[in-house]
Amino acid sequence: MLFTGLEHTAIASRDPKALAHWYVDTLGFIINFEYDGNYFVKAPNGAMLEIIPAEGAAPETAMRTPGLRHLAVMVSDFDAAHAELKGKGVHFLGDPFENQGNRLVFFHDLEGNILHLIQRPQPLP
């Protein structure tokens, strides 16, 4: 197989160090590589984000504006994860809900990027 998967997703940030540490402190990621003000953060399952210095003004983002819209964060215990984020002062975009048997809630990271918790009873095929 030639193409084996996504290696990482990049987020342009006004303060890459602060945003990287938000992912560490809030979601339990680790900073696994750093160079020239760029930070790679790694989730416990191996998924990575590269947080790079931003240039210019940020475009308007909303749930359905063109482009990447959210990062989905898998959790093993939805209620415990939701409660932990609430305790850390995370800004939620609404209440938790269920969609096709999956539990979800949307929230912002430190810089307003959209994420959501998801707990699926069955992984997608």
Radius of gyration: 15 Å
Helix-strand pattern: EHEEEEHEEE
Please indicate the percent range of residues in DSSP E strands (runs of 2 or more): 25-35%
Structural class: alpha/beta
**Uncertain spans, ≥5 residues at pLDDT below 50?**
none
End-to-end Cα distance, whole Å, is: 18 Å
Mean pLDDT, all residues: 95
Strand order of the largest sheet: 1-4-3-2
SSE topology:
Elements: E1 9-13, H1 16-27, E2 30-35, E3 38-42, E4 48-53, E5 71-74, H2 78-87, E6 97-99, E7 102-108, E8 114-119
Q: How would you describe what is shown here?
A:
It is a single chain. This protein has 125 residues and is α/β, with parallel strands linked by helices. It has 2 domains: 54 residues, 2,3-Dihydroxybiphenyl 1,2-Dioxygenase, domain 1 (Roll); 57 residues, 2,3-Dihydroxybiphenyl 1,2-Dioxygenase, domain 1 (Roll). Helices cover 18% and strands 34% of the residues. The radius of gyration is 15 Å and the shape is globular.
Brief summary:
The protein is of the alpha/beta class and 125 residues long. It is built from 2 helices and 8 strands.
Main attributes of the structure:
125 residues, alpha/beta, 2,3-Dihydroxybiphenyl 1,2-Dioxygenase, domain 1, 2 domains
